[in-house]
Amino acid sequence: MSTDFNKYNFKKTDGVVFDLDGTLWDSAKQIAGAWNELLKTRPDIVREDITPEDLYSNMGLPMYDIAANLFPDEETGVRNALMDDMGIFENKYLEKTGGVLFDGIREVILAAAKKNPVFVVSNCQSGYIEAFIKAHRFEGVFTDYICWGDTGKCKGDNISFICKKHTLKYPVYIGDTDSDSKACRQAGVPFIFAAYGFGDTDSFDARVEKPADIAKLLGLSG
Fold this sequence. Notes:
about 45% helix; single chain; alpha/beta; globular; Rossmann fold; two-stranded antiparallel ribbon
């Protein structure tokens, strides 16, 4: 889908909703390290070390879907319980280590927050967004956030919830995967594709090649 600025004026947005992985940061190396550390305590789970590449190929999926892909030989209850444990361990790990913020994204977030409320909607587990905020000192910046772990609902439903809760008339969502695009279509929210992230899609309302492009698109910089 080509960008149609006559259809949607992004500079008039009254709320910016961000995806997390692949849009704001890259935490794959840190998560893989955390999960492998926990797996050392579980000799009953047999698999090779988890790599960042394993995580990149699963970014954007709900946590139990990731568990099914990474541990296909385990029973559903076992792998889901394992994923719950890994999520708790990972959150504490990331609070200390942080991830890698995409170049320029901090400035974009802070500039956007000065103009409009900013939010995070992700398919992660509960506590993951909080770990991101704490590790990278974004306390008080985001108006609200929600995730699959909080509601058990899909991203489209959670985007809709945030928009309705905060009575946003002209929201935009920024994400990096085709599943993000589909979630936005479900929620009826314009989608800005972060092409610098982990995924790909041909369906978007605007495409940005780097975080600085977000600032230009939203009118946050000259």
